[in-house]
TrEMBL record:
GO terms for biological process: DNA damage response. It comes from the Bacteria. This is DUF541 domain-containing protein. Pfam families: SIMPL. Gene3D superfamilies: Protein of unknown function (DUF541), domain 1, Protein of unknown function (DUF541), domain 2. Residues 1-26 form the signal peptide. Coiled coil: none annotated.
């Protein structure tokens, strides 16, 4: 009788141990997925990098001419509708130019570059056209791109879509596993990004003529990624 009692007690101990292990394994069942959310919005700013490049026989003359041209370009853009506080110098450089032998200095090339942010988009074409006309053939435009200065609302929408996408993926895995999706364990933001709208760049000007610069803002795409881990049971 005592032997039978001992055997029953031992069997009960094994059952309890297995139950505990089963409970622990169930708690370790997780699914981790990454969701992506994308939304589109209309750009609210145009950013342009432009300036002037001139050549002269000596350094002082090259720098003076570049500065004079840069001022003329800035004044023309402000007259066309840009805000002076939105125009800032981004680079000033002067380099020697060499003759055919590659050693003798024949003159100097100076550049004065600036960045302008145009927030009144209907004026953007006229502002760039004014810059090109003021600088003439010395005008250089290196980049023009529309952007989103305030993407708070779009980012919030993209984040919500990313989470919904992650949850949908996790639910599918839970269904395939014959389990139920339970509570969220961790959430990790992987970052966000905005796809810029490329625009044509106007580089060479016709002296005295105001060019017709066509700019299309298009749509900006805001992308957000989030990684979420769920318990399953």
């Amino acid at each position: 009788m005592r032997r039978l009692t001992a055997l029953c007690a031992a069997t009960a101990g094994v059952a309890l141990l297995l139950t505990g292990c089963g409970s622990s394994n169930s708690g370790d069942r997780t699914v981790t997925v990454t969701g992506t959310g994308k939304v589109q919005g209309t750009p609210d700013v145009l950013n342009a990098d432009l300036g002037t490049e001139v050549s002269a026989a000596d350094v002082s003359a090259a720098v003076d001419q570049a500065n004079s041209q840069a001022k003329a370009i800035t004044d023309a853009m402000v007259t066309a509708g840009a805000k002076r506080e939105d125009v800032k110098t981004s680079d000033l450089s002067v380099q020697p130019t060499y003759g055919p032998d590659g050693h003798s200095i024949t003159g100097y090339r100076a550049t004065n570059s600036m960045h302008v942010a145009v927030r009144e988009l209907p004026k953007a074409s006229a502002i760039l056209a004014a810059a090109v006309q003021a600088g003439g053939n010395d005008t250089r435009i290196s980049s023009v791109a529309f952007g989103l200065e305030d993407n708070t609302k779009l980012l919030s929408d993209a984040r919500a879509r990313a989470f919904d996408d992650a949850k949908s993926r996790a639910q599918q895995y839970a269904d395939l596993s014959g389990l139920k999706l339970k509570t969220v364990k961790t959430i990790s933001e992987n970052g966000s990004g905005t796809t810029p709208t490329p625009t044509p760049m106007y580089r060479d000007a016709v002296p005295g003529a105001a060019p017709n610069i066509n700019l299309e803002p298009g749509q900006q795409t805001v992308t957000f990624e989030v990684t979420v881990a769920w318990d399953m049971g």
